[in-house]
Amino acid sequence: MKSLHGETNCGGDSKQKFLRTDALRIGEESIQAVLPEEAVIRALKQKKFSNVGDIVVIAIGKAAWNMAKATKDALGDRITKGIVITKYDHSKGPIEGIEVVEAGHPVPDENSMKGAEKAISLVSDLTKKDQVIFLISGGGSAIFEKPMEGVTLEEIIHITNQLLASGGDIVEINTIRKRLSAVKGGRFAALCGKAKIYSIVLSDVLGDRLDSIASGPAYPDSSTTKEALGIIKKYNIQIEEPIRRIIEIETPKVVENCETVITGSVRALCEAAASSAKRLGYQPVILSSTLDCEAKDAGKFMASMAREIKDPNNTSSYINPPCAIIVGGETVVRLTGSGKGGRNQELALSAAIGMEGLEDVVLFSLGSDGTDGPTDAAGGIVDGRTVEKMKALGISPEEYLNNNDSYNALKVADGLIITGSSGTNVNDVVVLLCASSLDSDTQLQQN
User: Fold this and answer.
1) CATH number, position 130
2) Close Cβ partners of 279 (under 8 Å, ≥ 6 residues apart)
3) Predicted confidence pLDDT, tens digits, the chain (447 residues)
């Protein structure tokens, strides 16, 4: 992963530049703390693998390459064969004995199907003496796909696009996805036959629901057909009658050949942000690691926290600067416009509007995987002067927000964070830094 990059041109204000530098440092250290390599190695040490039979590695998701590389480094020639199926540009080169396939995200494509077919081929002739190490990370729902009989890839793409634009949360979206797929909702475990599966999971789902992470390919599905049809109705998802009948097919409720361990989660991401902030002299407060709402609303809330903390007339607050307000989770974007952006950028733009005019505050919202929606940004960073910059360039932040065009609004205001692929994926982290003028002066002198 590249170091976090966000412009720190703050009109010559060294205090604001200092806060931004601290914010970017917290973001970078947070992600470094949840990279999957060490977590995978710990999980492998918990498991005793038989010396008889093959060991096959199947890795899916945005962090698949890093997880597979760590597994190969740990087990070496004991691995017989394997495949990595990850998002485009998330591979970091060849891994000896393991094929690497890059595929579409957040919408599946032909490579998603080719990768899944290769994985199925690798496990199709395994026996009870063989073992599968199944490495799962977020993004697997799109990256790893084999449509159910009677469903085409085009139909999955059409329904996925509707779900992503609906504002539904990831559990709701994956409840539908798994019913259209022959490798989700516990179905891939059945394709492994009598082989034992050891599943190592990097969680990107709030509450670490194993049947929702990558749509639970090797875990029994707790959702029901009734719930799935309710989601279709709730968001007015347009489907043909043959697809409805396939959605009504119940998913596996028992999976007996898989042992699962979770290696990382958004809670660890928030705790890492808190530790980093504390080292830099801020009082950390983790408000929640289960943020689940519209990005615009989350931005408004974080801005209200900034106003409350910075209000000189508020003497009853238990949170005082210098402080770091930390929230983790995954917001959603309800598409009403035709602009460019992602949930973290939209949250940041919404917060910037609410923080307009505030001094000594900085907020960033960051996707731990290094990508935010269909953009090259990982998220956004804003302060009390971000809106002023936009208006000076003739941009209405409210209009851009309503058009879901957060990327272009933040770009002109030096508000994009660019990281490249991080190699992990454990949801998002939002951090609000607040400092008094005295705090900023003192910290600047110390640095």
Assistant:
1) 3.40.50.10180
2) none
3) 455 655 444 444 677 889 999 999 999 999 999 998 988 998 999 999 988 899 999 999 999 999 999 999 999 999 999 999 999 999 999 999 999 999 999 999 999 999 999 999 999 999 999 999 999 998 999 999 999 999 999 999 999 999 998 988 889 999 999 999 999 999 999 999 999 999 999 988 888 889 999 999 999 999 999 999 999 999 999 999 999 999 999 999 999 999 999 988 899 999 999 999 999 999 999 999 999 999 999 999 999 999 999 998 877 677 889 999 999 999 999 999 999 999 999 999 999 999 999 999 999 999 999 999 889 999 999 999 999 999 999 999 999 999 999 999 999 999 999 998 888 889 999 999 999 765 444 444 444
Region for residue 139 given its phi and psi (left: phi exceeds 0; alpha: psi -120 to 50; beta: otherwise) = left
DSSP 181-246: BSSTTTHHHHHTTT-EEEEEEE--SGGG-TTTGGG-TTS-----HHHHHHHHHHTT----HHHHHH
The pair of three-digit structure tokens given for residue 209, joined into one six-digit string? 């629901």
Asked if residue 447 lies in contact with residue 25, where contact means CB atoms within 8 angstroms, the answer is no
Give this prediction's pTM: 0.79
CA atoms 164, 165, 171, 174: torsion sign? negative
Alpha-carbon separation of residue 225 from 154, 219, 246, 251, 349 (angstroms): 22, 17, 10, 8, 38
Domain boundary among 216, 231, 264: 264
| Edge-to-edge strand list for the sheet holding 416-417 | 283-291, 323-329, 428-434, 361-367, 379-383, 416-417
**What is the Cα–Cα distance from 117 to 137, expressed in whole angstroms?**
19
d(C-alpha 350, C-alpha 284), whole Å? 23
> What total of structural domains would you count in the chain?
2
Residue type, 344: N
Contact 183, 115 (CB under 8 A): no
Instruction: Quote the tokens at residue 251.
Output: 């998913």
Query: Residue 18 belongs to what domain range?
Result: 14-33+267-446
| Identity at 426, one-letter amino acid code | V
- Identify residue 394 by its one-letter amino acid code: G
Q: What is the CATH number of the domain that holds 365?
A: 3.40.1480.10
